[in-house]
Amino acid sequence: MKLAEVTSIDVNRTKTEMDEFNRVLGGGVVPGSLVLIGGDPGIGKSTLLLQVSTQLSHQGTVLYVSGEESAEQIKLRAERLGDIDSEFYLYAETNMQNIRTEIEKNKPDFLIIDSIQTVMSPEISSVQGSVSQVREVTAELMQLAKTNNIATFIVGHMTKEGTLAGPRTLEHMVDTVLYFEGERQHTFRILRAVKNRFGSTNEIGIFEMQSGGLVEVVNPSEVFLEERLDGATGSSIVVTMEGTRPILAEVQALVTPTMFGNAKRTTTGLDFNRASLIMAVLEKRAGLLLQNQDAYLKSAGGVKLDEPAIDLAVAVAIASSYKDLPTNPQECFIGEIGLTGEIRRVNRIEQRINEAAKLGFTKVYAPKNSLNGLKVPDNIQVIGVTTIGEVLKKVFS
């Protein structure tokens, strides 16, 4: 059949009451889709899906299968998270044959498996959670989801290396792979799509873990900046992009003379190799003698910053701590730094500047090459820069 002859269909997505969750999925839950959610233990995967399940039960039948908790335990948590509809069914089971029978009996619109590592097929001789068990059970769930048009969510465990446990084919078998990230010491969580057949992989959802469950963070920039100290050295603000959403975040640096032979470098929420590269450029191109200085770098609030546009903010934070001079609290920084010290263009510059202006920032340093034909708000001054040395002179003069 020719592609042009194939009839297009409209996908009727089911929206939850959590816009952040809908955004990451591409606009809502697609019937018959198979979604894998991974994350570290205790990060809140079960809480997220239990909360989503209570909302979906108002629009269809939900079957929540748990191999880790009893039905009584799940009900206690569900009552804390929201109203429970009569179409919300619980089933504590690990045998795939029994789960299949329950699915055929209840004919759910939405199925949650928590977790895939606890479910086993009696037809496979290997132990629970083994590669062959996970592959076989996932294949059976995929067949059930597609045949019966059941939107299915699978919880997957993460390894110590930060990858999903189980066979690599697991990620290829499902339609969508979501990572639920965050530091357990912080209350903020980020839901990120790394694969999505029904939407973009450039979207994230931000939540805050509270006593009543997960709450959406509608304006994350304000939350990440609310505890920033005015006049503190070693601090700068960057406008980073998480998918199509601009977010302002604080980069912090502490630079101190080393007390031992080799200088120490640590990073939290930032790429270590990228930070080392920036420090080398600062030493070579801007004259900062950092080889005998310990450097501790972090992104405040637990957010992970990993795009090239954060380079300039990281460099300014390091220079601020090294010189013991604060940055202006109303200034922010956008730009990638090259090895020759040049400030390189970044994408979505207008969107970033508009977000900074909306939050009351009055000045932004950005790559000069990105500013051609740019329309910016009247309440913010945009300074085009070409080298890191030029930036430091203007910021600390």
TrEMBL record:
CDD domains: RadA_SMS_N (cd01121). One of its GO terms (biological process) is recombinational repair. This is DNA repair protein RadA. The middle region has homology to RecA with ATPase motifs including the RadA KNRFG motif, while the C-terminus is homologous to Lon protease. Residues 10-158 form the RecA family profile domain. GO terms for molecular function: ATP binding; ATP-dependent DNA damage sensor activity; damaged DNA binding; hydrolase activity; metal ion binding. HAMAP family: RadA_bact. DNA-dependent ATPase involved in processing of recombination intermediates, plays a role in repairing DNA breaks. Stimulates the branch migration of RecA-mediated strand transfer reactions, allowing the 3' invading strand to extend heteroduplex DNA faster. Binds ssDNA in the presence of ADP but not other nucleotides, has ATPase activity that is stimulated by ssDNA and various branched DNA structures, but inhibited by SSB. Does not have RecA's homology-searching function. Plays a role in repairing double-strand DNA breaks, probably involving stabilizing or processing branched DNA or blocked replication forks. Keywords: ATP-binding, DNA damage, DNA repair, DNA-binding, Hydrolase, Metal-binding, Nucleotide-binding, Stress response. It comes from Streptococcus sanguinis SK160.
